[in-house]
Amino acid sequence: MSIIATELKANLSKYLLLAASEDVFITRNGKTIAKFTSPYQNKLDILDELVGSVPATMTLEEAREERLSKI
Hints:
This protein is an alpha+beta fold. The chain is built from four helices and three strands.
């Protein structure tokens, strides 16, 4: 689920409860700025999500350089 920051401010308790069962992405000006997730989420699912964010054709060094260039 994706919501805008203003909606989060107005209904924080609702989205905290919802985050126990699904990820809640908070956006501002059309860009994702935060993510609420359950602390009980399967750690392997989190790892799969992170690993999937780097293309298989990219080396570790290329990924590191790309990340540092965004800072």
